[in-house]
Amino acid sequence: MGAHQPDVVVVGAGVAGASIAAVLARGGIEVLLLERQREYRDRVRGEYMAPWGVVEARALGLERVIRSTQAVDGRYRVAFDELIDPSVAEGSKRDNSTFLPDVAGPLCASHPRSCEALSEEAVGMGAELVRGVAEVRVETGSRPAISFRNGTETNMRPRLIIGADG
Ligand SMILES: Cc1cc2nc3c(=O)[nH]c(=O)nc-3n(C[C@H](O)[C@H](O)[C@H](O)COP(=O)(O)OP(=O)(O)OC[C@H]3O[C@@H](n4cnc5c(N)ncnc54)[C@H](O)[C@@H]3O)c2cc1C
After folding, report:
1. Which superfamily, per CATH, for 8-163?
2. What are phi and psi of 49, to 5 degrees?
3. What is the rounded distance in angstroms from the CA atom of residue 97 to the CA atom of residue 102?
4. Residue 100 DSSP label
5. What is the DSSP string of 9-39?
6. Contact criterion met (CB below 8 Å) for 9 and 133
7. Whose C-alpha in 40, 68, 102, 151 is 20 to 30 A from the C-alpha of 56?
8. Maximum pairwise Cα distance, the chain
């Protein structure tokens, strides 16, 4: 990276950070995306994107990216429970496609696969992704500063630093 300063540094390449990096890079902004994990671990979270999240992902042009991970639409909801007879539970089946127009329901996807696909999308749009970063330090201000280690220490003064570390 040398003396080059990106416009924006995003700390954390989860669903939020990778998405914003993809959208900014697509808009011609120079983005550096920092992720501490070398490989996304499955921590069993974020598998269920609510219908209003699907609307946001669509508006951002990222729904297709999440769908590419073999995501499935959760069209119906049946609340099975060990205390409820299955036939009774099935009787209360809810159609999730009735919440919002043109949304079949929540979008259910593997969280690590979504993070991977979204960060690949960010890179495809021109963002630089650095994995395995450690010791991220941020100095706030009108011209913020950030430093991190990835083998060696890097110091930068981008125009904006976005914390998307969960
Ligand atoms: C048990 C559980 C289940 C959940 N289920 C759902 C669900 O079904 N639906 C839903 O919408 N939400 C769910 N959530 C909330 C879910 O975690 C968030 O919606 C989603 O993961 C938030 O995405 P994010 O990108 O903001 O944060 P995260 O997914 O936490 O991503 C943050 C990223 O930043 C990286 N990072 C952190 N610190 C640093 C650092 N210092 N430097 C560099 N990188 C860093 C992390 O490695 C990670 O990749 C669940 C949460 C939990 C705990």
Report:
1. FAD/NAD(P)-binding domain (3.50.50.60)
2. -95, 115
3. 8
4. S
5. EEE--SHHHHHHHHHHHHTT--EEEEES-SS
6. no
7. 40
8. 66
Give how far Cα 89 sits from Cα of 67, 92, 115, Å: 29, 5, 34
Please report, in tens digits, the pLDDT of each residue of the chain (166 residues total): 445 799 999 999 999 999 999 999 999 999 999 999 999 999 888 899 999 999 999 999 999 999 999 999 999 999 999 999 999 999 999 999 999 999 999 999 999 999 999 999 999 999 999 999 999 999 999 999 999 999 999 999 999 999 999 9
Q: Provide the residue ranges of all domains of the chain, joining segments of one domain with +.
A: 8-163
Residue 131 identity: R
The Cα 8–Cα 158 span in angstroms is 6
- Counting from 1 in the atom list of ligand 1, the atom nearest the Cα of 16 is 25
Measured in whole angstroms, the distance separating CA 32 from the mean position of its chain's CA atoms is: 15
CA of 14 to the centre of ligand 1 (A): 6
Q: Whose CA is nearest to atom 38 of ligand 1?
A: 165
> Of 19, 45, 120, 162, which is best to mutate to test ligand 1, by the most ligand atoms within 8 angstroms of its C-beta?
45
Helix (H, G, I), strand (E, B) or coil at 94: strand
